[in-house]
Amino acid sequence: MKVLNKKNLVILLAVLVVYGGVQAAIAARLIPPFYSVNLMLICVYVILATSLNLINGVTGQFSIGHAGFMAIGAYLSAIVSVKLHGPLGAAILAGGIVSAAVGFLVGLPTLRLKGDYLAITTLGVGQIVQVVFFNTNYVGGAAGFTVPRTVNWTWAFWLTVISVVIIHNFTNSTHGRACISVRENEIAAEAMGINSTKYKVMAFTLGSFLGGLAGGLYANYMYLIQPTTFSFLTSFNILVMVVLGGLGSMTGSIVGAVVMTVLSAYLSQFPEWRMVLTALLLIVVMLFRPSGLLGTKEFNLGFLGKKGESRAA
Amino acid sequence: MLLKLEHLSKSFGGLKAVADLNIEIGQGELVGLIGPNGAGKTTVFNLLTGVYEPSEGKMIFAGKDVGGLRPYQVTHRGIARTFQNIRLFGDLSVIDNVKIAFHQHAKYSAFSAILRLPSFFRSEDEMESKALALLEVFHLRGRAGEVAKNLPYGEQRRLEIARAMATEPRLLLLDEPAAGMNPQETRGLMELIRWLRDNFQLTILLIEHDMSLVMGVCERIYVLDYGMIIASGTPEEIRTDPKVIEAYLGEEAI
Amino acid sequence: MGHVLREGLQQVVNGLSMGSVYALIALGYTMVYGIVKLINFAHGDVMMIGAYVGWLATSRLHMSFVPALLLAMASCALLGVIIERIAYKPLRNATRVAALITAIGVSLFLEYGNMLVASAQVRSYPPVLPSVSYKVGGVYLQYGAIVIFATTIILMILLTLTVRYTKIGKAMRAASFDKDAALMMGVNVNSTISATFAIGSALAAAAGVLYGAYYNTIDPLMGIIPGLKAFIAAVLGGIGIIPGAVVGGLVLGLTESAVSALGASTWRDAVAFLILILVLILKPSGLFGKNVREKV
C-alpha cells in the first residue's frame, strides 16, 4: 500500500498521540475551560485558514469574505441540529454542503474578476450573508441563535484532520497542480489545456465547503451564534493567518492559525492592542517578507530519508 | 489539410491587425510565418489558440471549426503553443511544468485524488514516467527537480517546447523559439525542431525573426506585412521575392 | 397622493446628503486607483480620522465650521502622504495582492489605533451648523443637507479644474495613463502620487467633517461602511473617472434611501453590495468606463 509509507505512518502516529494526549487530559479534568475553548477555536481556525489558503494561496484568487461561508455553515448546521433535531454529523455536513452550493453559485460569475475586484466582491458576499441572517427571524435575527453544545474534542480534532487531509490530497494531485498553474500564469495554464474557470470554481467551492464545516463545528460548540460573529473582521483574521503563514503553504496556514488563535486568547483583555499589533504585523510582513513565514513551501519530513510526494508548490 | 485559415481577420477598434488571411498547412509540414515587427504574426497565434476571437473568417483544424473556442479547448483539440515572452510556471519545478501540461490526459477525478484511490497512484506514476521521458528527449532530465525560473535562458525555451509537447498536440505553434539564443543554441534548436516533427508525426508552424533558422528549417514560408500575406513559397522563392525584400529593407539582412 | 410625493422628495433629499458623503470619499478612491491601481482600503478610515480632527477642532479648540473643515483636510492630506510613503510606496512593484493586504493592515491600524487614542466611545459633534430647516414645497431642507451637497459639488468642480488645467493635474493624468512613459517625459511620478493621496485624503476628511456635523455622532469604526460604499460608488461610476465617482455616490445614496423608504432599511448594505456584484459581473468598467484587455 502506497498510502502506508514511512512518512505517513509517522504523521499518523503523531496525530494519534496529540489526540490521545488531549483526550486523556480532558478525561482527567486537567484542562481548564479557557484552554478547552481555545483548543476548539484552534481546530475551527485551522480548517478556515487551510481552506482559505486553498483559494487564495494555492489557486491565487483573493477572497476576503471567508467568514460568510463559515456563517452559512454555522447557521445551516444549527438549523439542522436545533430545528430539525438532526444528528450532529448530518448537521455539520449539511452546513458544508449548503456553503459549497453558495460558493459555487457565487464563484461561477465572480471568479472571472481579477485580484482586487474579486476581493471586494467576496467581501460583499460576506456582508450580504450577514445581512440575510440578521434579517431572518427564524434563526434569531440580530439577537442570535442558541445552539446546545454537542461538539467535543473528538469531533473537532478529527474533522480538522479530515479537512487537512482533503486539502493536502487535492493540492498534491493533477487537479491541485491545475489550480497552482492558474495561480502561476493563467494564460499559460489555459494554453496547456487547463480550464481555468473550472479550477477556480472548484477550489472556491471546496474551500467554501470546508469553511462551512468549520462554521458547523463553531456553532455546535459556542452555545450562541450571532450575525456579527461572522463580520469581515473575522474574514480578515482568517486572511491574516494565511498571509502570515505564507500564501500557498498549507502547513504555514496551520501554524498561522495556531499562533494567531493563541495570541488572541492571551490578548483578549486588550482587544485594541491585539488589533493594532495584528495590523502592524500584517504591514511589516508585507513590507519585509511578502511571502509570509514559509512562502509557498511546506514543512516536510525530509529527515525521514524517504522522498515524499512532490510538494504543493 | 490539417489547418486551413479562410479570410481570417481581426480588428482592434479601427485597427486591422490581421486582414483576409488565407493559410493552408498540410499534415507533417514545417511552415514558417515571418514578417517585420508589428506585422501581426503573434496576433495570428493568438487567434489560432483562442486568446482572441476572429472578427471575420474561419479557422478549420482537422476538419472542424475552432473559431470561438476558449484557449484550453483549442489545446484539447490538438494545438499547442509556446510564447514569445516565455510563460513558464516559474516558481514550479521543471517536472511539474510538464506534468501540468499532461493534465488533460490524467485518468482520475478530484474525488479519487482526495480519497487516494488506486487510480490516483496508477495515473500519477504514469504521468511521472511520461514526464521524465519527455524531459529526457529535451535533455532536461537532470533538471527535473529544479525551479523553472532558475534554468538558463536556452533551457527555459526548451522546457517551454517540452511542456507544449506534453499536451500531445498535432499542431505545434512556436513563437520566436530562437529569440535570445546564441548561434550554437539556434543550430541545436533547428535539429530539435526537425527531429520533433519526424518523431512525433507533428505539424509545426513557427514565427521567427532569425532568418537563418527559418530558411534552414522550414519547407514553406508565409510572409506577413501590415496584417496581410504578401508572399508565400519555398525559402528559395522567398529569399528572392522583391516584395519581401522591400518589406524587410533596413530591418534585417536576408 | 401629495403625502406620498412629499415623502418621496424627503427621501431624495436624504439620499443626496448621504450620497454626497459617498461621492467625496469615492473621489479619493477613484483617483488613487486610477494612478496606482490599488484599492486603498484605508481610505474610509482616513475619512474617520478627518471626522475626529474636525471634532477636536470644534469641540475642544472651539473653531467654527469652515476653519475646522480646512484643518481636517490639511491634516488628512498629510496623513495620506505619510501612509503612501511608508506603507504603499515600497510595494509599488510588488503584487497587487500584497499591496491590498497592506492596505487592509493600514485600515485596521487606523481604526484600532484611534480606539486606543480616543477610546471606542461614540462622540457627538457640537452644533457647528445651524439646525435650521427650510420648508420648500412641503419638503424639509435641513441647512446641513444643503451644506453637504453644496460642498461636494464645489469640491468636485475644483478637483475637475485641477485635474484638467493645472500642471499637477496633467502629471496625474499622464501618470495614470502610463507611469513609465510619464517618468520619461520628465513627470516626477513620486510627487504626483503623493499629491494624489494628499488630495484624495483631504476630500475624505471633508466627507468626515460633513458627516460628523450632519449626523452628529462619530466613532473609530465609522469609516468602514461608508468607505466600502464609496468604493462601490467608484466602481459604479467607472473607476478612475472623476464625475463617475460623484454620480455613482449620488446614485448609491438615492438607492439606499429608496430601500429605506420601502421599509427595508436593514437590507440597505446588502442592496449596496448586490449592486456592486451586478456591476462587476455585467459591466466591470462601470457606467462611464471603457473595457480593456490584457496583452498576451
TrEMBL record, chain A:
**Record InterPro entries:** ABC_transp_permease, LivM-like
Subcellular compartments:
Cell membrane
Gene Ontology cellular-component annotations: plasma membrane
For this chain, one GO molecular function annotation is: branched-chain amino acid transmembrane transporter activity
What is the membrane topology listed in the Swiss-Prot or TrEMBL record?
Multi-pass membrane protein
Q: Which UniProt keywords apply?
A: Cell membrane, Membrane, Transmembrane, Transmembrane helix
Checking CDD domains in the record gives: TM_PBP1_LivM_like
Q: Does the keyword Coiled coil apply?
A: no
User: What protein name does the entry list?
Assistant: Branched-chain amino acid transport system / permease component
From TrEMBL, chain B:
Recorded GO terms, molecular function?
ATP binding; ATP hydrolysis activity; L-isoleucine transmembrane transporter activity; L-phenylalanine transmembrane transporter activity; L-valine transmembrane transporter activity
| Enzyme class at the top of the EC tree | hydrolase
Quote the Pfam families the UniProt record gives.
Answer: ABC_tran, BCA_ABC_TP_C
Matching entries from InterPro entries are given as: AAA+_ATPase, ABC_AA/LPS_Transport, ABC_transporter-like_ATP-bd, BCA_ABC_TP_C, P-loop_NTPase
As recorded in UniProt, its EC number(s) are 3.6.1.3
Q: Which organism is it from?
A: Acididesulfobacillus acetoxydans
Which PANTHER family does this entry report, sorted A to Z?
AMINO ACID ABC TRANSPORTER ATP-BINDING PROTEIN, CONSERVED COMPONENT OF ABC TRANSPORTER FOR NATURAL AMINO ACIDS-RELATED
Gene Ontology CC, one term: plasma membrane
Name this protein carries in UniProt: ABC transporter
Quick check: keyword Transmembrane in the entry? no
TrEMBL record, chain C:
Q: Kindly state which keywords UniProt assigns to this record, in alphabetical order.
A: Amino-acid transport, Cell inner membrane, Cell membrane, Membrane, Transmembrane, Transmembrane helix, Transport
Where is the protein situated, by its record's location annotation?
A: Cell membrane
Topology in the lipid bilayer is annotated as: Multi-pass membrane protein
Tree of life domain: Bacteria
Which PANTHER family does UniProt cross-reference here? BRANCHED-CHAIN AMINO ACID TRANSPORT SYSTEM PERMEASE PROTEIN LIVH, HIGH-AFFINITY BRANCHED-CHAIN AMINO ACID TRANSPORT SYSTEM PERMEASE PROTEIN LIVH
The family this protein is said to belong to: Belongs to the binding-protein-dependent transport system permease family. LivHM subfamily.
Put simply, this protein is called: Branched-chain amino acid transport system / permease component
Q: Name the source organism.
A: Acididesulfobacillus acetoxydans
The uppermost taxa in this organism's lineage are: Bacteria, Bacillati, Bacillota, Clostridia, Eubacteriales
